[in-house]
Write a structure and sequence with these properties.
The chain contains 8 helices and no strands. Helices cover 82% and strands 0% of the residues. It has one domain (3-218). The protein is globular. By secondary structure, it is an all-alpha fold. Helix 2 (29-54) runs parallel beside helix 6 (150-170). The protein has helices at residues 3-25, 29-54, 58-85, 97-118, 124-145, 150-170, 177-204, 209-218.
C-alpha cells in the first residue's frame, strides 16, 4: 500500500473513532441516531477504500450493507419507534458525559498500547488498523454500559459491530467478511424488532394485534 493510500485508510479509521466519541457525547436520541448514521457512512467509506486498495471486490458488498442498512434503514426504523411509541427522547446516562469521555479516551489509549504491543510481527497498517478497530469496539461497549435507554444500547451494540467489521476488512485475506456482515445485520434487525415489541408490551401490556386494534379504536 503506497503512502497516500495508507494515510487515507488511517484518516477514515480515525474518523470512525472520532464519530464514536461524538455518539458518546449526545444527550438526545434523535441526535444520537443521526450521528450513528454518520458512523455507518464513515465505515462504508473505509470498507470501500479497503476494497479498492486490496483489490477485493467482495468488500464492496460489505460497504453497501453498512450504507443501506446502518446508515438509512435501521436509523429510520428507530426514529419511527421513538416517535410512534413516545419513548423518552433524552439519552438516560448512568454517569455524566465528562466522565464517560475521559473513560473513552482511556480505552483508546489502552487499545493503542495493547494492539501495537501484541502485533509487532504484523505490518504497520494492520497493527494501527486493529488499534483503531479495538477502540471503536470498546467505545461501543462503553456506550452500552453507560446508557439506560434500550434504543441507545442498541446503537452502542451496532457501533461495536462496526468496529468488528473494520477489523475484519483491515486484515487482508480475512474470510467470510461479507457473510459476517450479513449475519450481524440480521442480528441487529432482530434486536430492533425485539426493542419494538418490548416497548409495545411495556406501554400496552400486550402484543396481541387484536387488543392493539381495539385500543386504537377506543382512542379514535
Amino acid at each position: 500500500m503506497d503512502r497516500i493510500a495508507f494515510d487515507i485508510a488511517h484518516l477514515l479509521a480515525g474518523g470512525l473513532v472520532l464519530v464514536s466519541f461524538m455518539m458518546i457525547y449526545q444527550d438526545r436520541l434523535y441526535a444520537l441516531l443521526n450521528v450513528f448514521a454518520l458512523h455507518a457512512v464513515v465505515l462504508s467509506l473505509s470498507v470501500s477504500w479497503q476494497a479498492y486498495t486490496q483489490h477485493a471486490p467482495h468488500l464492496y458488498v460489505t460497504a453497501a450493507i453498512a450504507l443501506i442498512f446502518k446508515a438509512i434503514i435501521i436509523p429510520g426504523v428507530l426514529h419511527r419507534i421513538i416517535r410512534q411509541m413516545g419513548i423518552h427522547r433524552e439519552v438516560e446516562k448512568v454517569v455524566g458525559a465528562g466522565v464517560t469521555m475521559l473513560a473513552g479516551m482511556g480505552l483508546v489509549a489502552m487499545s493503542i498500547v495493547l494492539m501495537l504491543g501484541l502485533t509487532e510481527a504484523a505490518d504497520a497498517f494492520a497493527r494501527e488498523d486493529l488499534a483503531f478497530a479495538l477502540s471503536v469496539v470498546l467505545l461501543g461497549l462503553l456506550m452500552m454500559v453507560t446508557r439506560r435507554n434500550a434504543v441507545s444500547q442498541v446503537v452502542g451494540f451496532m457501533s461495536l459491530e462496526n468496529g468488528l467489521i473494520l477489523a475484519a476488512t483491515g486484515a487482508k485475506g480475512m474470510p467470510l467478511v461479507v457473510e459476517i456482515s450479513v449475519a450481524f445485520s440480521v442480528l441487529i434487525a432482530f434486536i430492533v424488532i425485539g426493542v419494538f415489541l418490548f416497548r409495545i408490551r411495556e406501554r400496552f401490556d400486550t402484543i396481541d394485534l387484536g387488543a392493539l386494534d381495539d385500543y386504537r379504536g377506543e382512542h379514535e
